[in-house]
Amino acid sequence: MDNAASLPIPGESEESRRALRKAVRMRAHLRDRGTTRFEIEVVDLSVTGFRAQTSFTLWPGTTVWLTLPGLAGLEAVVAWRDKYRYGCAFSKPLHPAVFDHIVALGNS
Q: Is it the case that residue 107 has pLDDT exceeding 90?
C-alpha cells in the first residue's frame, strides 16, 4: 500500500499537486549553502519535488542540494516544514527516466 503518498501535506490539497508522487524509502544527503551535508530519509518523490524527514532544521525558501546514490546533486527549494518533515521543489523537473531510476532505487 502507498501509505506515504496518502499522508496529508501542509498547505497542499490533492487537486493542487502538479505531478504524480511515488512512495520511496531511501537515505540521501542534503546540504544548503555553506553547510556540510547531512543525512535525510526521502519518503516520497515526484518529478517536481520530494518529501523528506531529518532532524536538521531547514526553513521554507532555503535552496538545498539533494544527493542520491549515483546521481549529481539536484537543486531544490524547501517549500514547507512540519517539525521534522519537509517538502522540497526541484529547481528543474526530473527527466522521467531519472525519476523511474530513483523510484526503483528507493523501492529495492
A: no
